[in-house]
Structure formats: C-alpha cells, structure tokens
Amino acid sequence: MKKYNFIKKQLSKTNKKNDENYVVSRIWHLLNNPDVKMITQQYIVRDVETKTYALADIYFPQINMIIEIDEPYHLTEEMVLSDSMRQHDIVQAIECEVIRIKVINDLQEMNERIDSVVLHIRQRFETMDYKVWDVEQEYNPMTYVHRGYLDATEHIAFKTVKDCCNCFGAGYKGLQGSGAKHKFQEAIDIKALKFYPNASWDNELNADEQFFTEYHTDSEFNTAYMKKRLYELRQEIALFAHVRSEFGGFEYVFKGWYKVNQKRTLELGKVCYERVSTIMPTYFEGNQEPFEKVAKAIYNHREIAFFYDEEELHRFLEKYKKAEITYEFI
Amino acid sequence: MKKYNFIKKQLSKTNKKNDENYVVSRIWHLLNNPDVKMITQQYIVRDVETKTYALADIYFPQINMIIEIDEPYHLTEEMVLSDSMRQHDIVQAIECEVIRIKVINDLQEMNERIDSVVLHIRQRFETMDYKVWDVEQEYNPMTYVHRGYLDATEHIAFKTVKDCCNCFGAGYKGLQGSGAKHKFQEAIDIKALKFYPNASWDNELNADEQFFTEYHTDSEFNTAYMKKRLYELRQEIALFAHVRSEFGGFEYVFKGWYKVNQKRTLELGKVCYERVSTIMPTYFEGNQEPFEKVAKAIYNHREIAFFYDEEELHRFLEKYKKAEITYEFI
After folding, report:
1. What SS3 state is found at B309?
2. B53-66 pLDDT tens trace
3. Chain B window 107-166: which residues touch A at a Cβ cutoff of 8 Å?
4. Among B34, B110, B111, beta carbon nearest to A107
5. Which residues contact B101 (CB under 8 A, 6 or more apart)?
6. Which of A9, A22, A41 to mutate to test the interface with B (most CBs of B within 10 A)?
7. Closest to B255 in 3D by CA, of B147, B146, B155
8. Chain A contact for B3 (CB, 8 A cutoff)
9. With CB atoms 3.0 to 4.6 Å apart as the test, which of A171, A327, B3, B19 could cross-link to A285 if both were Cys?
10. b/e A36-56 (16+ beta carbons within 10 angstroms → b)
C-alpha cells in the first residue's frame, strides 16, 4: 500500500465532476505535503435523527476538516443511508471545521479562491500537533499497542481480523473467522462485522454509531442467538466494521467499545449494543509490557487508555480536555 | 469561452487514467501560470508515411513541447487514422521537444520527477518570447489582421466561417456556407472543409498536411466538380479544417495556403491540392490599412506576411531564421 496509489485514487474519484477535480487536485498539489492525508468523496453524517448522509468533497482526518465545493446550480445532495453506502466508512463529522469553495467561471479568481483555502489548511497543519501520515504505521496494530489505545474518532483501519485482535495482545499469526475473545479482559469479545446485508445477517450501525444491532434473517436462528448473547456470551464488544478501503478491497475500521443493552435487545427482538467508550486500551502480546506506564485514562469507571510516554499523554490530554476523563498517574 | 472551462476540461480528459490525472494536474497547478495554454490528449503525427498517430498526454503549443507519461506496462498506442480522429485537430509535432515522465509507485519520488519537469517547462517559458494565452484574442480574426499573417504551425482556430473570411478583410457580419472568394487575391478561395466523411463528401487531409483531396461520393458529381475546379474555379485555397473544439462543439483551424495540383488530381480522380505555404498574409477590411507596413515576408515568390510593427517582425525573423524566406523592408 503506497501513498501515491491512495492519493491518485482520491483525485480520480472526482473524475466525473470537472470542477471538483480542478479544486481537489489544486489543493493537493499546492499543499504539496506528503505528510498530509486527504480523502475525497467521504461519507459524512449530516443528521443522526433522519439518518441522512452526504458526500464530503474533501476530508482531512488529521485536522478534522472538510472542504465543500459548491458548484453552481448544484447543491450537495443529502442521501438516506443505502446498502451500498453501508459498505463505506461513514465519518461523524459533527465537530469538523467545514470550509466552502464556491465555483466561479474564471481561472484566476478560481485559483485565488482555492489558494486562500490552501493557505488556511496549511496554517491548521502548522499550528496543530498532528500525526504525520505514514501508511505502513497506520495499518500496523503495533502502532496502537505502543501508543496504548485505539480511538474511534481517528478512523483506525486494519487489513485483517487478525490485526484487529493483535491490538489487544492476541499475538495471532493467522486467524479464521470474524473475531475472537479478548485474552486479557474476560467481559470482551473482539468482533469484525459487516454493516450491510450479507449471507443471512443484516446488522446495522446507527448514524451516530452510538448503537449497533446484530440481526439474522432466519427468525428461529435470530432468537436463539439473541438468547445466547444475552445470557451466555460475553457482554462487551471491541467493534470493527468491514468497509470499503481507499486502496481497493475492504478493511476493518475500529468503531469503539460496546456493551449489550438488554432492554433495547428485548424491545427490538435483535441483539442491540450501546457504545460505552470511543476509546479502548490496547495490550502487548501476553500482556507483557516492555515499557513502564506513565498514566492510565479512566472514563465511566473503565480504563480506556494506557500511556507509556509523556508526549502521547500530552497529546491525549490536549484532545480530550473537555471530556469527563480522569487520569491515574503512575 | 473561459480559460477555466478549457483547463478543467483538459484535466478531466485524463479521468480514466489515474496516473495521468495526477501528473497533468500537478504540472498545471505547480506551473501556476494562467498565461500558459495546456492541451491534454492531443493527437499528434508519429509517422507521415504510415499515417500513424498517437495521443500526446500533454501539449504546450506556445513552446512546442510535449509531455509523455510512461505508465508501467503501458506503451503509448499508435493508431491508424480513423474517422473519429479526423474530427480532431492533429498536430504536426515533428519538431516538438518531447519530455517523458516515468510513473513510479512512490509519492515523493513521483512528485520530485514531476517537479523537475515543471522547472524545465517554466524555464522554457521564461527564455522564449511566447504569446500570452488570451482566449478572446486567440479567437478574434482581428488579432491576426493586426499582426499581418496566419501561421498553420500555431493552430489558429475560429468559431465561424465568417471569422475565417474576415482574416482576409471580408468584413462579413454573417455568412452562410463553407467559404467565400478572397476579396483582394483573385486566385484564392477561402474554404472551411470537413476532413471526415460527411453528407456526400469524403475529403482527406494527409498526415503531414502537405496535400488534401476533395472527393464527392457520387462519381458523376465528383467528375463534374473536378473539371470545374481544374478549369474554371480559383486555383488557390486558404484552408481551414472543421475540427472538434476543446470548449465543446467544433471550430475551424487554419491549415495553410494550398494550390490545385493538376497532375495528381488527374491521377487520383479527385481534386488534389498541395500546400504552397504554411503562412498566409491577412488583410484589413476593404484593404484599408490603418498602419504603415514596416516589412513584407516573401516565400517562393509569394507575399506570405505583412508586418506593421518591429516587434512582430522580430518575433517572426527569430522563428523562421532557418527558412528560405526573403524580406522586403518598407
């Protein structure tokens, strides 16, 4: 997986919309920074209530910024979630900075409008403590194990279910199936689910990703599974969603730490889980930490992150200064 | 017609080829010069003898430079002239500078390769006395009337047959049909022809544009027209070809000054013309020159260009220093 493949695909996705292609390519080439990750045509949530989504023209995940290109006589279409969209990763862009570029039919004026946005983006990157885009590291579970946590707001993706499990110290060399038990937390299963109709399952992740349901289309099987999950199986889930990858194929994106919601499950007649945290702690293989922890983050009586160095801790404190997270320094 | 429309169409033509789109957009945005005209996917002559053509990835007409993007496992296709290609303008790129960019699957290396080409292009523009790209002026016959000549190597295009005629001082406000008589040169007709099968005509412009033929598919009509052209009509032609425009629709591109070749006409059984000059003099309306001429250029005993200012004369002398053109200074 190479950055060049990724970026040229991002540019080409705009290929039927000439204005978009012009704007996106100009922004990319004038930013001229291979440390920047840029995603085009990213599905974002517009309205959780009505389950409406839109395609953001450009999304910069490192600085949580969206660029919208307003073409004349063409408003951004809002869409109700379709099955094909459920194969894509959907960004919770509620706290994103949104910048709009109005298309005008004049080359110099267009260039000036885009250039001022480029300047703004560059300033954001200069003033924020962002992580350099490193494709190899991004897909490597050890990156998150060393860091001490997974964060669903970062759209962390892995190529295999094995890699998902290895974030929690599983140490697998290979793995069949769509998940495994967490080796060091007895309440937790690790699950990689398809949130679009497949085989006999029709699972659903709701728009704000606060809940998800598992539903089997054979009602007898569904009832049996529901009972098993409610009364026998582990109640908590480290959730990964199977989504289309920007490199082609599919990948697994971390969505958070969920727990069975018994009341809703019985109401709906299908297993329903509620998110208890967007952040989950990672584990070294065999739970053998090669470094000493400097701190732990605690949210709602759960340990959600471990920190092995001050710098990472500082970055986390800065990002979550408004959240009700407490810290235990070691 | 706006530069922005033109350029975004140029970028979008590469839309199915992601490498091309990346390279073309990077070159355009980093050159960052709205005075530069850039054409993508330009048909160029590869071999006059075999009538083979290729699509140049990028063509800079002002500096006569072609950029070829070499994708891995993908050689530039050569094609034999097809009817659909005959609707496009074909560039005689024989003396073009050709620069190749090899695609490599690495973002930083790709950027470096493209950036060094951008530097080279920019140097060419800095050291050459090129005409600033001005879309309005480019399509205005008065631009060429004031300058004193049309030059087929410059791919000069007009929107209407009326504009073609007005290069020669016709002063038309409107015009039906595909040409008119030259008002000040009794031997010359102005003709705008389709070089692809249309109605009952199947005219052909040969690969190096040295010859063209007019052929009517009704053989009786063809013979009658041939006789008329050989023995009654004017023997010389200011030729414009009807080609697809980069703005959409069609336009008329100046191809040169031609003369009936009687021998070849009789051999082929269709009217055949041979080019006598790529350059033709323009005329003010009513042949009333508002400025005094400073010089005339003469090629093969024909006046091919008039000059009304020293600067234009200097540019011409520089461009044609190797040609057997004589000058008469006034």
Report:
1. coil
2. 777 888 898 888 99
3. 107-108, 110-111
4. B34
5. B23, B67, B68, B69, B70, B113, B114, B117
6. A22
7. B155
8. yes
9. A171
10. bbbbbbbbbbbeeeeeebbbb
Report the chain A residue with the minimal C-alpha distance to residue B107: A4
pLDDT in tens, chain B (330 residues): 567 776 766 776 665 577 888 899 999 999 999 899 988 888 887 777 777 777 788 889 888 899 988 876 555 566 666 766 666 677 766 578 889 999 888 888 999 999 999 999 999 999 987 888 888 899 999 999 999 999 998 889 999 999 999 999 999 999 989 999 999 999 999 999 999 888 899 999 988 899 999 999 999 999 999 999 999 999 999 999 999 887 778 999 999 999 999 999 999 999 999 999 999 999 999 999 999 999 999 999 999 999 999 989 998 998 888 889 999 998
Which of B2, B3, B5, B8 has the highest number of chain A CBs within 10 A, making it the mutation to test binding with A?
B8
- Measured CA to CA, the distance from residue B191 to residue B180 in angstroms comes to 7
CA distance linking residue A309 with residue A325, whole number of Å: 18
Q: Do B29 and A29 touch (CB under 8 A)?
A: yes
A81-121 pLDDT, tens digit per residue, is: 666 666 667 776 657 888 999 988 888 899 999 999 999 99
3-state secondary structure B129-170: CCCCCCHHHHCCHHHHHHHCEEEHHHCCEECCHHHHHHCECC
* Partner-chain residue, chosen from A2, A5, A11, that has the shortest CB–CB distance to B21: A11
Q: How many CA atoms lie within 13 A of B315 on its CB side?
A: 17
Cα→Cα distances B29→A241, A308, B81, Å? 37, 43, 33
Which long-range contacts does B218-222 make (Cβ < 8 Å, 24+ apart)?
Answer: B222/B269, B222/B270
Contact B105 A5 (CB under 8 A): yes
Question: How much is the ipTM here?
Answer: 0.76
Closest chain A residue to the Cα of B4, Cα to Cα: A107
Question: B8 and A21: CB-CB below 8 Å?
Answer: yes
Residues of chain A contacting residue B106, judged by C-beta atoms under 8 Å apart: 2-4
| Domain boundaries, given as residue ranges, for chain B | 3-127, 139-281
- Is the minimum CB–CB distance between B19 and chain A shorter than 8 Å? yes
Instruction: Round to the nearest angstrom and report the end-to-end CA distance of chain B.
Output: 38
